[in-house]
Amino acid sequence: xxxxxxxxxxxxxxxxxxxxxxxxxxxxxxxxxxxxxxxxxxxxxxxxxxxxxxxxxxxxxxxxxxxxxxxxxxxxxxxxxxxxxxxxxxxxxxxxxxxxxxxxxxxxxxxxxxxxxxxxxxxxxxxxxxxxxxxxxxxxxxxxxxxxxxxxxxxxxxxxxxxxxxxxxxxxxxxxxxxxxxxxxxxxxxxxxxxxxxxxxxxxxxxxxxxxxxxxxxxxxxxxxxxxxxxxxxxxxxxxxxxxxxxxxxxxxxxxxxxxxxxxxxxxxxxxxxxxxxxxxxxxxxxxxxxxxxxxxxxxxxxxxxxxxxxxxxxxxxxxxxxxxxxxxxxxxxxxxxxxxxxxxxxxxxxxxxxxxxxxxxxxxxxxxxxxxxxxxxxxxxxxxxxxxxxxxxxxxxxxxxxxxxxxxxxxxxxxxxxxxxxxxxxxxxxxxxxxxxxxxxxxxxxxxxxxxxxxxxxxxxxxxxxxxxxxxxxxxxxxxxxxxxxxxxxxxxxxxxxxxxxxxxxxxxxxxxxxxxxxxxxxxxxxxxxxxxxxxxxxxxxxxxxxxxxxxxxxxxxxxxxxxxxxxxxxxxxxxxxxxxxxxxxxxxxxxxxxxxxxxxxxxxxxxxxxxxxxxxxxxxxxxxxxxxxxxxxxxxxxxxxxxxxxxxxxxxxxxxxxxxxxxxxxxxxxxxxxxxxxxxxxxxxxxxxxxxxxxxxxxxxxxxxxxxxxxxxxxxxxxxxxxxxxxxxxxxxxxxxxxxxxxxxxxxxxxxxxxxxxxxxxxxxxxxxxxxxxxxxxxxxxxxxxxxxxxxxxxxxxxxxxxxxxxxxxxxxx
Length: 816
Description:
Blueprint (H helix, E strand, L loop, with lengths): L3 E2 L3 E4 L4 E5 L16 E3 L19 E9 L8 E6 L5 E6 L2 E7 L5 E4 L9 E9 L27 E6 L2 E3 L2 H4 L7 E6 L5 E12 L5 E10 L5 E6 L3 E3 L4 E11 L4 E2 L2 E2 L2 E9 L3 E10 L4 E4 L3 E4 L2 E2 L2 E5 L13 H13 L4 E3 L7 H10 L2 E5 L10 H17 L5 E5 L14 H14 L7 E3 L7 H4 L3 E2 L2 E3 L2 E3 L11 E6 L19 H20 L3 E6 L5 E3 L2 E5 L12 H7 L17 E3 L10 E7 L3 E6 L2 E6 L10 E2 L12 H10 L11 E2 L15 E6 L5 E8 L2 E9 L6 E7 L12 E9 L12 E7 L2 E4 L4 E2 L4 E8 L4 E8 L6 E7 L1
Parallel strand pairs: 1-22, 26-27, 26-35, 27-28, 28-29, 29-30, 30-31, 34-35
Antiparallel strand pairs: 2-11, 3-4, 3-5, 5-10, 6-9, 6-11, 7-8, 7-10, 12-14, 13-14, 14-18, 15-16, 15-17, 15-21, 19-20, 21-22, 23-24, 24-25, 32-33, 36-37, 38-39, 39-44, 40-41, 40-45, 42-43, 45-46, 47-48, 48-52, 49-51, 49-53, 50-52, 53-54
Helix pairs in contact: 2-3, 4-5, 7-8
Keywords: Glycosidase, Hydrolase
GO molecular function: hydrolase activity, hydrolyzing O-glycosyl compounds
Pfam family, one: Glyco_hydro2_C5
């Protein structure tokens, strides 16, 4: 049946805000002039920061937006939704105080229905404060925090206009295991699946309404694959009703990291017989999951080893203020890097990033905001509400397989971090998501009674470079998850895994070896469900002025050798339509002059690799099969205690800035052909390859057929620049906040990037973009990168770069 549509309208509210850094008086009032304030577009950061920053701007900032309310909105409900704001927000509408929200990672909404002046100008004003506040999770002061409190309205803002009879927002409704649309699954198989749809409807009219809910599941082509209509319910004026419906799908396409099929759930609210007053579309993925020591992690009845990494939401210069497109580009890079899982360390991240994980097949665990801190009182109240809000926001995402409720690395010695508190956190999560598809995860180390705390998936820990599942004697039936590995156990803040992309071949190989050695160790722990490396992308942090360089990619999202090691762990027969996938090969070598025969490491997911020097074969290798060995003697040159107090850490930081480990001093037998038997796909190590300047080529074969090829050429003298724009599946949008990285490569006459080149490169732009951050910028390992941010005007952009002694380069792009 077709219904007349009087449904909701959601408007992008990111455009043309006025911004002021500081705390001017009376800025909340409607008629205060703001014409001299800066005009900005959201997402927005209060201050552009240096590339290397620990103590970024903390303090007050203000945002104001003027808008007209259409006369057609009269009689409707009007809400403004903030996806997040860092981290204490005071909101006024036309001078009237509407809300004080504490917490920087989760959404909040205000009802402005009674505050709007129709046919006239309206003003919303927001004061933000990102100063240290021990009552707001994560709570720890910036100067001792291992990530950052970048401020601002750093996510999207939306304006919702809807009928007074409508589906509620789950977070705003504040109902345990309710509000909004809640979708769960049972009896899932390739033959059929039962979809339970729960819809919460609110009637804010002043008379009773007869209400019917129509729920329809559509496939990617928009074809109806299942639908149901509820019976008509009378909902009293000011009343509410939760409709529960069942849809059975025949031969469903199941969501899985290797084939992340998504359906659309269309929810229609019918007033009486024929008037559609509200409509929502929710992307869903049909799947079922379980965790056990006996069977590991199971999805759709099949065992799958979790192969993951961690991610902070930070970008160079702009902090956390990333567009939806930028969030998607990060997800693409992580998926292409061979990961099937991302831990959102250590807080709920952007809805756009989680949407991308659904689409690309990246499973996730979402942590409650926390890091080595748990104060009594208000902090714990907010932390518990954060658990409820993050589950209400993200419970319908098929990528979400765990909810981390333990406040990262926060143990008994950390104030109020008691067994009773974390047991309550575990119960809250299960209250919000009843059923067997809810799984809490968290640290059990330091718990007096971990069986009482009862996390469904306890975390493992490191002890002298070995991963152990804590308290085996009291948690004998539970498998463990290695939520961080590969960095800290190799030297703390002086870790030999913390290697900049420009550190050279030897150190990059050492970093990659650390992660290979650790991953092989993890895979030998048969009770392990999987793991997440620390970390996917380099990031800044408050406790240390150097970037944490243990990422598989640097802060500009440029890959290091270890990125390709992880990429080689992906299945060669799994092809994703949207991203690079399938067979691959990568030579982890610069092929520069060396005095002794070279050891050449090739990462590949093929059966065998043949290596060629200037067209001559030097051998065919099967994957390495050597024995597992002890790592070797780690010499860091400095004893580091990760658990220093705030005062001790500051003193240590200020006193040791000149000390950084030389990876060359380590007594480690890297790439000896061993420590790989537990890997899905071991590297290929070629010994004694005689150096000849020219071309080094690797061909990967599967069942005797060439499937992948990679070439490295000896770099000649730097001659020219070449520009590459990193769009990663999303073109630059003309919205005033989207951005891409422009990479200027220093190349020789053959087009080979010269890894020793460190030229200072100057970028110039014409058209509706601006360069954010440093310019000129020094090349690292032959590549100089700037951040290009769009203006809110479509058009053609010309990017040019220059460096002394090199031929300049230019490229064009169009933003729409």
